[in-house]
Structure formats: C-alpha cells, structure tokens
Amino acid sequence: MRFVKMQGAGNDYVYVDCFRETVSDPGTLAARLSDRHFGIGSDGLVLICPSEKADCRMRMFNADGSEGEMCGNAIRCVGKYVYEHGIAAKERLTVETLAGIKTLELEIIGGKAIAATVDMGVPELTSKLPEGIFVEGRKQTFVGISMGNPHAVYFRKEIGELDLNAVGPEYENHTRFPDRVNSEFVQVLGRGHVRMRVWERGSGETMACGTGASACAAACMLMGYTDDTVQVDLLGGTLTIRWDRGGSGHIFMTGPAEEVFRGEIDV
Prior knowledge:
- Helix content is 16%, strand content 46%.
- It is an alpha+beta fold.
- The protein has 2 domains: 2-117 and 255-264, Roll (Diaminopimelate Epimerase, Chain A, domain 1), CATH 3.10.310; 124-249, Diaminopimelate Epimerase, Chain A, domain 1.
- The radius of gyration is 18 Å and the shape is globular.
C-alpha cells in the first residue's frame, strides 16, 4: 500500500489515497501504522476517498483505531494532497467529513499548497458557561464546545508544567462525557494570543489539534478573554482562528500543511 506522511502544525497522520488504494479494515490498520516503534508513526490514519457530495471525502482514524468526526489539521493536508495530485486542482475545495462538508481556501506558492483556511462551521456550546466537574481530586471548570466533535476547554494560569500523560485519561474518560472528549488546556496571554495544549481522545497528547484550537478560541471569546481573532500557539506551531460572530457565525482556521515523506508498506 502506498501512503503519504503529512503534518499540520505537528499534528501528523498517514494518508492513503483511496482513489487508487483499497483499505478494508481502517481501524485496525490505523492502530498498527500509528505505532511510532513498530509502524510508520503518526497521530492516526486519514483516508482520502471519492465523494458524491464534495471534491473528496475524508475519513480520520485515531491512533487507537477509533474513527473521529473531523480533524482540522488533517483536512488542510487533504486539501494539499487533492490539489497537488490533480484530484481537484482548484484553490477552493470542498471536503466531506462526518461533521459535514467543509470548505477550504488554499494558499498556493510555486504550484504547491503550503497552507489553507478552513471554514470550520458554527461552534456549539455544550455546557454551562462555565461548568464544573471533579478531576484530579478537585473541581475543574470547563467550557464545552462542539466543532462537530466534542471538546472541553480548561483555563489555567500556566500550562507548561502540566503532566498530561498522567492526568489526560481522567479528563478524556470522565463520566460527564459518555463518548469521551478532547480536552484543551489554555493559557491566555493577551486579547489576541493564547497558548494551548491538547489531550485528544483516542490519541493522547498531540502537537496540535485544529478543531481543538477552534473550540479553544470560541471558549476564549465567549468568556470575554480575547477578541474575535486569536493566535493559538500549540506545541507544533501556530494556528490563526477567526470567529465571524457578526456575520455567518462560522469559525475560520488558518494554518500550514506539509508533506513529510512518501512510501510503501506491506499490509
């Protein structure tokens, strides 16, 4: 099976072109390929598939084999792939996901897509503003946001020393979230600038999360901590999030997309 490894702000996935390849058991394959010692190594597996509704369809599987509804960093890389491989050689693309059809505007330099702006849709508040749960032996308040997948955003004065490997599973699997949840830990630096770390359900801590950055920004704006455009610094890079609250109500995410390498693997 041929594959391409791509990353967006350090959020890395193995991509398979299902216009040319067939994947019969993507969940099992995702867990195998994602292993960084015995596989290719990634945050998961992304299948780029034909669609009857859009230019292509994206299926995203986490490192544990579970299927996710949407991934903001992965979808930028999908846009890059379909543009550069002639599947849909245009700068404005549509991609079908389990969270609906998403529109991308590609930034093209020298015939290559180096970045993209994704219409992430309308954020949905899924909690009180804020709401409390008991984690780590004490009450923690969060803002629940759905970007087509579930997020809980926690505000901290400092996030650098947070041991997510130790506490992340407790947040992900809390009984408040029957389908598990992506957990974002946010440090507000200014009206247009925040830092974020993320514990993704099914994958653990990752270098970046596009839907998480979008949920983080929406929570910051709803709480009055930032303006409606904010720079989100993640472990793997920076994403710019804009919420068109006075117009469409949609969140727009801008960030990079980069191919790392190509290869073949026996499956």
